[in-house]
Amino acid sequence: MFDRVLVANRGEIAVRVIRTCRQLGIRSIAIYSEPDRDALHVRLADFAYPCGGAAPRDSYLQADRVLEIARESGADAIHPGYGFLAENADFSDRCAEAGVVFIGPSGDVIRAMGQKASARERMKAVGVPVVPGSEGPIDDSMAESCARVIGFPVMVKASAGGGGKGLRRVAAATELAAALERVRGESRSAFGDDSLYLEKCVEPARHIEVQFIADAHGNALALGERECSIQRRHQKLIEETPANDVGSSLREAMNAATLAAAKAVDYCGAGTCEFLLGPSDVFYFLEMNTRIQVEHAITEAVTGIDIVAEMIRVAAGEPLEIDDVEPVGHAIETRIYAEDSERGFMPSPGVIDVYRPPGGIGVRVDSGVEAGSRVTTHYDPLLAKLITWGPDRPTAISRMRGALSEFGIGGIATSIPFHLRALWDPAFVAGQYTTDFVDELMDRSADTAKPSSAPRGLAFRLAAVWWIRQSGDASDRAVAQLEIREKRPTPSAFEPIEVRCLDSGGYAFSFGGETSELDIATGENENAFSVIDSAAQLEVVVTKKGKNLDVRTASVSIQVEVREPTEG
Fold it and tell me: What is the per-residue pLDDT across 16-59, written as a single tens digit (0 to 9) for each?
């Protein structure tokens, strides 16, 4: 077993790997860019080294610097996590040349499966079904004739693509030239390779993936499938396992295809085969991810297998000790992003004022942030992964709803409101959804989404309380007569709100034709209110932004303006 492992990543996956190293008795080495100097993964590691400036190209993508740190720190191995150098074949080769074990497949395997067009041909050769498409990369002159043979709609894909980048749906020949130009540009910028190929667009479709792990002794094991159909711009938002309505024969067929793919390239390590599942249970190979996946935690929840630990063991040359898998129960993961889902998933950089993760039976949080962490635009906006397990799907859903409502993150907007809406949507509850789920959800009536207007009314009342506490002489009054309105996306009309201070320390409100009372407690951060009402205890964060107040609960995010009536 290794003595020291360098974790060539940041955020929640770096924290995840460092914790597993500790459990295995391995000393961990963190690397950090200048903005990450005080990050959680840096503090948790046994050793930490700076790797450069803010931009990934100046830090986490600096292969020379990472290998230099490995030599300085005495690292036996490097775990790349996902993203950055995780699927860099040249980096895997350089690790081997430097005498440092790359915890992942060899450079040859990464190359073989990283070029999507050639990987398709390799899979066809071993009997793995692939989506009908072009025979290898194409040039622009042959694209239209090829697309007509395949049949519109088609997908234009970058051969070196991945992570939702380098692909476009094309519905008609008139759209093809523009799509080719755009995808070539994206691919050249993101991957340094502008070769493209075409595939049939399978509609309606589901995105199913199968986790596997293989050792250097010829053993390979499929660990079960995950439903990953809930995506935005080809980036996954919610995953669950087992997949909905996947019977034993279909599961066995996808497992067999996965193991055939792994053995075809002599794979060693943890990997994932991704499939499109079309009508009539017809499935097609999409790609192989030659790294750990973000959503690996739900597979761990139902199998009891620590996939990161197994990666480390097989990289150290140990054979797999697992010969069979019997998944138990159901698990769901929601990816909590620093994005304002109520405003078209706009990025939401800033400082996290409040970070209060949920707990309880069957609840797990993988995170790389905490209160005081700064979220920048330099890196992926993933803050945390929230995982719930239950003996059945309804229990896992119920636990996820509760955990999302309890998850308190203040100072920035997050995707939690979206997840709450999705978890209450009838299509999700029924398990009847495809890759079109997000677009369909956004088009549905707001009446189908659980959070109701109650959190919005609560946010208005808390904004008024914050205002009277911060506004000098108004805070000394027993009664404050104010006006309040929502500022975005379109400013609403001001509404009168009366706030009366109670002897108990709470507040009474007259607002919207109703009266109500709330007990309010503040913590160390005066902007964060703990609110107690007859229904539940909620975390509400109020932050001043210019003349406006940003008010956030776990299920609503609004910007309001408060004023005295005399302000005109």
Answer: 999 999 999 999 999 999 999 999 999 999 999 999 999 999 99
39 φ/ψ angles, rounded to the nearest 5 degrees: -70, 160
- Confidence at 450, pLDDT banded by 50, 70, 90: very low
Name the nearest CA neighbour of 269 among 304, 235, 296. 296
Catalytic residue chosen out of the listed positions 291, 421, 461, 552: 291
pLDDT tens-digit readout, 98-135 = 999 999 999 999 999 988 888 988 999 999 999 989 98
Average the pLDDT over 396-422 and give the result.
Answer: 89
Q: What DSSP designation does 138 have?
A: B
In degrees, rounded to 5, the angle at the alpha carbon of residue 107 between the alpha carbons of residues 105 and 113 is 75
Contact 448, 245 (CB under 8 A): no
CATH annotation of 132-200: 3.30.1490.20
**563 is an active site residue:** no
pLDDT of residue 448: 40
Q: Which residue has the tokens 């009266």?
A: 515
What fold, for 454-567?
Glycoprotein, Type 4 Pilin (3.30.700)
Paired tokens of 456 = 């919005």
Band of residue 564 on the pLDDT scale cut at 50, 70, 90:
confident
The hierarchical CATH code for the domain 206-448 is 3.30.470.20
Instruction: Count Cβ atoms below 10 Å from residue 533 Cβ, excluding itself.
Output: 15
Element (H, E) at 16: helix 11-23
CA-angle at 43, arms to 37 and 45, nearest 5°? 115
Q: Report whether 64 contacts 229 (CB < 8 A).
A: no
How far apart CA 183 and CA 199 sit, in angstroms, is 14
The architecture in CATH of the region 4-103 reads 3-Layer(aba) Sandwich (3.40)
User: Is the pLDDT at 525 greater than 70, yes or no?
Assistant: no
Q: What is the mean pLDDT of residues 479-496?
A: 83
| Distance (Å, whole) CA 234 – CA 150 | 22
d(CA 544, CA 411): 10
Share of the chain above pLDDT 90, in %: 66
Q: Are 42 and 36 in contact (CB under 8 A)?
A: yes
Structure tokens at 370: 């905490």
Give the integer Cα–Cα distance in Å for 274 and 289.
8
Residue 523 backbone dihedrals phi, psi, to 5 degrees? -100, -150
Residue 300 corresponds to which tokens in the numbers above? 């761990």
Residue 401 region, left (φ>0) first, then alpha (ψ -120 to 50), else beta?
alpha
The model's confidence at residue 488, banded by pLDDT at 50, 70 and 90, is: low
Global pTM reads 0.82
The Cα 336–Cα 240 span in angstroms is 15
Per-domain residue ranges for the chain? 4-103, 132-200, 206-448, 454-567
